[in-house]
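Running log. JK asked me to keep both predictions on one page so they can be read side by side. First protein, sequence followed by its tokens:
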Amino acid sequence: MSTARRDWSWLALTPLLPLAAAIPGAGRWLLPLVAPLTVYPAFAARVRCGDYEAAWQVAMSWAALLSLGVILLTEVWPQAAAAGILHGQAYRAEMFGWVATGAAPENDWRQFLPVHLEHLLLFVILTWVSGGYLGLVMGAALVGWMSYFVGCFALASGHPVLGAAAAWVPWAVLRVFAFVLLGALFARPLLVRRPWPFTRLEYRLMALAAAGLVADVLVKTALAHTYGLWLREMARHAAPALYSGAFGTWG
């Protein structure tokens, strides 16, 4: 089997990883800690070679497949997902409150921007000191709880596919794009054993990632309120029970 085929064969197992969240007593950190195992060898090899485009592609594919696995687990086995996804229930409550009432940090850049910057700084540090692995662990945690909300919304709205696509809000997708690119860049120093192995190419890619993060903030600031209302209408027509308090934070 060729190296590329082997890499993609491992990657294809990623949607099964969220089942780790259903293991009794495993704890909510198990999934983020083991999730990078299906992608890290392929990711690290591409970063080591300086093939950032291929590293970005394989890591984005991993993130999408991991999200798919969490969404499916949430829709098919919601109790296991609720018990096993790190920060899932708290994030679901916050986001359901945003959709139902319009009141949440999502609507105010003064509230969400410090959190974004904190996540960015932590992600870069973890990526740098671990050759990318701990950055992928953090990415798995973030994708996990965002995908748990997506699955919950899809289940509650009565639109398992369309609801999931809609609830992956566009500014969050931009943030994932940018974080994955930064992960490929800042994993390189440890992997090539050089403290600053960056050239003009890397600086251009850093600027591209920064542009993605700025776009994330601008799109979120401009669209969050209207987008939340749209999600509310989708749920209202499909599941009026949401507005009678059936989901705790709605009503």
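And the second, directly underneath as requested:
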Amino acid sequence: MSWWNSSRAVYGAELRAGAQCFVDHGWPVVPGTWWQAGGWRGLPEASGQLAASGWDSAPAVVGGVLEASCDSAQVTEWWSAAPFAVLLATGTALDVLEVPAWMGQRMATTLRSVGLVAPLAAMPAGRWWFPVTSGGAEPTERLADAGVVRHGSGSWVIAPPSECADGLVHWRVNPSACGWRLPASELVQSAAAEAARWRAAEGDDWSVAQRPTGVASGMRS
């Protein structure tokens, strides 16, 4: 086995372990297209494509995010077949608030100041996300303008230790640091609102670290 293939095999085992850890804690996952040789690979054969264009990973099974599972055996079967990205399905066990990196830093500081350690993941393109309780309200217009996206029913986020075009998704605060407890969506959105007010007071026009142009946000299908 070549060094490259050996490295990919080790990484594939890490992806499988990461997906398994999520389902062990009741967070549903679905395999996603993986980044390789300048493109997203692994679209289901029914799509008629070999690779996907775009910035984000998409579900790599025919049924899409609706096939998300917390079944350990299913996860083992999926990630034994290919080095799929780990996609965390939202809208049932949890939602996700995705924010610009600058906002995520401010929010984490604010939450810690009130004694709350919240799980926090970072994506390499300047976007961070907080897993939160499901069923929360949509972000206000002000927060949406600041780049806040709520992922609820029918959506997903690419999760650690998956690879993107610009690098690896990684934990800034691992869920184990807070016993895998989810913070209330309202509380995390309140921290986002505080960060938005702080940035506005600094005279910023939200031009830093926004989601790349042309990438759909919110609910996906």
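Observation for JK regarding the second prediction: The longest strand covers residues 95-100.
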